[in-house]
Here is the input.
Amino acid sequence: MSTYRTSTAYPFCPGCGHSAVLDTLNSAFGLLSVDPRKLVLVSDIGCVGLSDQYFRVNTFHGLHGRSIAYASGIKLARPDLDVVVVMGDGGCGIGGAHLLAAARRNIGITVLVFNNLNFGMTGGQHSATTPPGGRTSTTPDGNLERPLDVCATVAVNGASWVWRGTAFDKDLPERIAEGMRSDGFALLDIWELCTAYYVPNNTYSKKALLDTLAGLGFPTGLIRSERRPEYARALRAAGDSTHTPPGPKALSVRFASSVDRRVSVVLAGSAGGRVRTAARLGLTAAVMSGLHGAQRDDYPVTVKTGHSLSEIVLDPTDVDDTSVEVPDAVVVVSSEGLAKVRKLLERLPASAEVFTLAELAKCETAARLTVLDLASVPSLPRGSTATVAMTAALVRLGYVSADALRAAAREEGRGEETLAVVEAGLRLAGDMR
Here is the structure.
């Protein structure tokens, strides 16, 4: 049987279970005759994280609790590789979300949990798997928490192959090999002794280890073996299907614009008022008029309540700076929007323009103020105020033409409905002359 081990001795404490488990891992590689060039050993911080340097295979070492995330990325990029994770119970707790995600996805990696019931590298603190009553540096009077059942957790979340045993099991090499041969996410929860901390703090032994397993009702041996689609392969198959997702929409330049410098417009309204849609419509019309543009949106995390702001920057050459300190125009269509931009309005110079509704017109600003009379536009659909106002403002400012806005409306998913709203805005712009 070929060896995948270097000749360097392990650095672990005398009697530590890590050495025995790593030797069985080497034996498992030999049983499978794995090509070392196709094998990746992934580790993170912890005593077991030191072990990858003692194998003649590809290795990846990363942050504590993140080894499963790294291994998943490697498997997704190279499904042809055999990816094995070696991690401690500390990393298993810290990286619990990654553990669950890998099990749910059933990604084809094999995880060996070197479970010695405490953080052995950093001083013997209690971990997610410390048994009740376990005395550690952080639980000197005995642990009060129920330990994480690693096997039950991954099994119920979809892992295809799950096994639990100890570092003393004679058939451990065969079980590791079996886990690596399984198609999908495989995990071996291997209980062992930490001779530096847990053993002396708890007068612990092999018998005590087995008694703890029995007392907790944690079964040993093969706990789950079920065939499920392996995630990396299934993902690639889905990507190779005949369905092609739509690419970015190309906009052709069909109209002209009189804009000869960088200009910017701020549209201020309410969340849920289609403010971003109205700004995007204006931006689309500008791009179709040969301008470069950018849009930045601002709204609260509640999404459907409070303000909604959109800034658009238009430039005949390029937009290398999307910041808007003092806009050329501000369009205000709701009280929430006004509250958000009130200080901005106070800073506007006399050369700027403000478009707003009659009920919002009492605002302090040196800018030219234009009141939009929506009463002159009958039967406006609900949620169309922002689009009507933005359309009227852009036309009055001379940034884009009516035909460009009509064409932009046809590019929208609800083309005819949007076109009707744009026409209402164009009529409003005409009434403002």
User: Anything to note?
Assistant: Residues 372 and 403 are 21 Å apart (CA to CA).
